[in-house]
Amino acid sequence: MTDDTNTTGGNAATKNGKVVIVSGPSGAGKTTVMRRVFEKCPLPLRHSVSATTRPPRAGELDGRDYYFLAPEDFDARRKRGEFLECFAVFGRDYWYGTLWSEIRKGFAAGEWVVLEIDVQGALAAMERFPDALSIFIRPGSFAELEKRLRGRGTESEEALERRLERAKHELKLADRYRHQVINDDLDRAVAEICDILTSEREKKR
Ligand code: 5GP
């Protein structure tokens, strides 16, 4: 293992590996966009599987969607320094975090490790990896984001209001990312992200 892959941070890139940070407020369509990017982009991208204390939703698998951890286990790992970053997202009781082991696995395989994380986690990850490629996915407009969130119909009005407040806060921090992509057209947003990634590879050559 090189210095770049140890748990003290360092450069985002090893010879071939790299850290890619992707954020966007919920309702911006980040998950759909990134699923397509993984299918379409001809680069060795690896989705970093985060750990969380939230329970799995229907259809989610442990080790694929998240590592679903008991709060005590999460806390013990946090104290042992196993996380690159971890936070209680949305000010709820649930914790989310990026495990160093995910970064190490990707770097060892020469892959680009893609962290799909919230803004506070992203800012912490950028500090650890200043040359990480960072992309913020924006909704076409705030009204569009609100429409998408309401359309899901899965949440109470109060939870929805909280997400909207959070989204406003996240949008204010968008300029901390190296790139911003507007998801008002899925195909175009996917193509734009693939272009950003591909030109980064060209730069590394
Ligand atoms: P969900 O519970 O809907 O899967 O995710 C809720 C939020 O947690 C999303 O904004 C997602 O980006 C964020 N998230 C997922 N994994 C991580 C992580 O490892 N670290 C941080 N800081 N946020 C995460």
Could you characterize what this model shows?
By secondary structure, the chain is an alpha/beta fold. It has one domain (12-199): P-loop containing nucleotide triphosphate hydrolases (Rossmann fold, 3-Layer(aba) Sandwich), CATH 3.40.50.300. The chain is built from 7 helices and 9 strands. The protein has helices spanning 30-40, 71-79, 100-108, 119-128, 142-152, 157-172, 186-204; strands at residues 18-23, 45-47, 51-52, 67-68, 83-88, 95-99, 112-116, 133-139, 179-183. A 5-stranded parallel beta sheet has the order 2-7-1-8-9, sandwiched between helices. It has a 4-stranded mixed beta sheet with strand order 4-3-6-5, sandwiched between helices. β5 and β6 form a beta hairpin. α1 packs across α7. It is globular. Bound molecules: guanosine-5'-monophosphate. Residues 26, 50, 54, 85, 87, 89, 96-98, 116-118, 120-121 line the site of guanosine-5'-monophosphate (5GP).
Characterize this entry briefly.
The two termini are 22 Å apart.
Topology at a glance:
Layout: E1 18-23, H1 30-40, E2 45-47, E3 51-52, E4 67-68, H2 71-79, E5 83-88, E6 95-99, H3 100-108, E7 112-116, H4 119-128, E8 133-139, H5 142-152, H6 157-172, E9 179-183, H7 186-204
Parallel strand pairs: 1-7, 1-8, 2-7, 3-4, 8-9
Antiparallel strand pairs: 3-6, 5-6
Helix pairs in contact: 1-7
- Tally of alpha and pi helices: 7
Bound small molecules, by name, code or SMILES, are: guanosine-5'-monophosphate
Quick one: CATH class? Alpha Beta
Portion of residues in helices? 40-55%
Poorly predicted tracts of residues: 1-10
Give the spatial strand order of the biggest sheet.
2-7-1-8-9
